[in-house]
Specification:
single chain; alpha+beta; Porin; 2 domains; 16-stranded antiparallel β-barrel; 5 helices; 20% helix
């Protein structure tokens, strides 16, 4: 069968090469020749493998005492989709799971009110060890372990089960899918800090929960949508419980994406979270958020994007009393010169009941050396810092600060594509 494939494939290639020779340069012709050689090698390898299987079948026929070797001819029709998925999962998981290591080196210099100065030069702020593999045709396990400040912890650890009718069930510990920035690993973000709007809502760390999340994709016309329901517990000290006691919450989320043309997409989404906050008996916290992302990426990797989100946290101290309301938002603009160089600018806004509004402005340049390392330089100015932002900077509430940040992210090992 493979010889027949070569018999019709090679004449087609011979006919096509002169055509491309007129339309393409010498480099493209050489690249095409290299691809043809690789394709021929793959076909020959498959042919050799088929001959080995046939030889094993003939050996069994000559030796009736042999067991465990099938003499049935191979055919695509004889392999069901479930068998194919199982074989793929088993093949990936036949040895060790895919393991990657990501190191983040960060340096910063800050000058704030009351002559506060801070400087850090390229400490390894965080190391990530990512383990992932298909368990079988229906289930996948992903674990991310972080090492920071001399301690190690499971940042994310969850299992994904593919259910009938397109449902996906994720159970375990993971970033809460709120907006766009919170559920993205820090090293995958183009900027080196956390937007102040999220810091004032949830503190300097990610908003993480342990529970179950069920989602289902929907396709309406030429748009793609996703509906998610979740039930989880978390110990976030800012939005839910100052004593860092686990509290249960429920959530719902919708996202939708539209293709505007061949290179541009629009994403919209909203999230609602409700749970007991532990501040008083029967007191609760509501979080309502919305986000958008407009991207235009050309085929040469140049392009631009606008991304933003707004979230509001309403914290009740006890039933019937006034609630503490905190708003946090950011708007990010990014321009990609090519696949290696990107620039960005971001405006942050926060407001808390009974306090002045906080604003912050940041801009920077990122150099993507390769798929495995990226450097970012960034400047940030924060004005009228609220409680959480001030605590991160070591300032008094209401002070302002200027920061210069540098980040170098390096990775080894296989890793999946980052979220679009």
């Amino acid at each position: 069968m493979k010889k027949h494939a070569l018999a019709w494939l090679l004449p087609c290639l011979i006919i096509l090469v002169p055509y491309y020779a007129e339309a393409a340069g010498a480099d493209e012709i050489q690249a095409l020749k290299d691809q043809i050689n690789i394709l021929i090698q793959k076909v020959e390898a498959l042919e050799a493998r088929q001959q080995q299987i046939q030889a094993a079948g003939e050996s069994k026929a000559d030796n009736p005492a042999s067991v465990g070797v099938s003499t049935a001819p191979l055919s695509v029709a004889s392999v069901t989709p479930s068998q194919s998925a199982t074989a793929q999962a088993t093949g990936e998981n036949s040895g060790n799971p895919a393991i990657s290591v990501i190191g983040t080196f960060a340096g910063s210099a800050m000058r704030g009110g009351n002559a506060v100065h801070q400087r850090n030069f390229l400490p390894m702020s965080e190391g990530e060890f990512v383990f992932g593999a298909e368990v079988d045709a229906h289930t996948r396990l992903d674990v991310t372990v972080t090492a920071a400040n001399g301690a190690m912890a499971a940042e994310e650890a969850y299992v994904t089960s593919r259910l009938p009718e397109g449902f996906h069930l994720r159970a375990g510990r993971k970033f809460i899918p709120l907006g766009r920035a919170n559920e993205t690993h820090p090293h995958a973000l183009i900027y080196a800090d956390t937007p102040n709007g999220l810091t004032n809502l949830f503190g300097p760390d990610k908003f993480i929960g342990e529970g179950v999340f069920l989602d289902h994709p929907l396709y309406i016309g030429e748009s793609a949508h996703n509906l998610l329901l979740g039930f989880f517990q978390n110990a976030n000290q800012v939005a839910f419980d100052p004593t860092a006691t686990n509290r249960f919450s429920g959530m719902g989320r919708w996202t939708g994406m539209w293709d505007l043309n061949d290179t541009a997409t629009l994403e919209l989404g909203s999230t609602y979270i409700n749970g007991n906050n532990g501040i008083a008996v029967n007191s609760r916290t509501d979080i309502l958020g919305a986000h958008l992302a407009l991207k235009n990426l050309e085929f040469d990797h140049s392009g631009w994007s606008i991304e933003g989100e707004w979230n509001r946290s309403c914290i009740g101290t006890s039933p019937g009393l006034a609630r503490t309301i905190t708003d946090g938002a950011y708007l990010l603009g990014e321009y990609d010169f090519n696949r290696n160089w990107q620039s960005f600018a971001r405006a942050d806004f926060s407001r808390m009941t009974g306090h002045q509004s906080e604003t912050a402005y940041t801009g920077g340049l990122a150099w993507k050396v390769s798929e495995f390392q990226r450097l970012t330089v960034q400047y940030k100015h924060t004005r009228n810092a609220l409680t959480e932002s001030a605590a991160r900077l070591g300032l008094a509430a209401g002070d302002s600060a200027d920061e210069a940040l540098f980040r170098w992210v390096v990775a080894i090992g296989p890793h999946g594509a980052h979220k679009y």
